[in-house]
Amino acid sequence: MTALILAATLSLPARATVVTVTKGFRHESIEVAERTISELAARTGYLTIQFARDDDDLARLFTPEALAETDIIFFLNTTGELPLPDRDAFLRWIENGGAFVGAHSASDTFHDFPAYLDMLGGEFDFHGDHIEVPVFVEDREHPATRFLSSPFTTLDEIYQFKRYDPSRVHLLLSLHADPDSGTPSSLPISWTRRQGEGRVFYTALGHRDDVWEAEWFRQHLLGGIAWALGVEEPQRRRAARF
Ligand SMILES: [Zn+2]
After folding, report:
1. CA 9 to ligand 1 centroid distance, Å
2. Separation of CA 173 and ligand 1 centre (Å)
3. Which residue of 5, 19, 72, 236 has the smallest Cβ count within 10 Å?
């Protein structure tokens, strides 16, 4: 397990709210994804998790008072327009130093809330069939990617984005060719952003059960979460393990 450098301002375990509410497409992988994040929390001891699985949970866990008691929010394959009690307060919470993590269809969420999409750094546009692709590591020092070979291959549903501006994100993983046509192009797969005082980590992977069950993906998530919380920072890579 990766060693963690504890930030002075955060005592672990961090208080996490994991949202799996869907108002559009619902991924079958949510069940295994919830299990994955619970296992990671138990294995590392640095997250205590409250799940927001329905509208009542969102109403309870996204009040300004509840946000003040939350360290990290994870949109795990959410879709559509989530009925947050105060969505501006949610974005202010990130601006003021909250940690936000999004997986896969977190970018297929809040299409009518541009400020959310700008915070995330991209908006889901379309995807093709599941396909095995070579994924290139763009940051070999980041905790979410420094243990990966470049390129490594994975089989998943690959998202293409709109409302994505490479100058607004720090790219961690990308494809160097269109997954379907093979035409050379840069397609973002995972990135980070700073939003005010807050830290944002997004990975576009995570459609399939077997991705959530893969050890490299678990390490990828864990590194992203640790960075977003400020408990791990980029450092020189050791040997790739995946
Ligand atoms: Zn999907």
Report:
1. 36
2. 18
3. 236
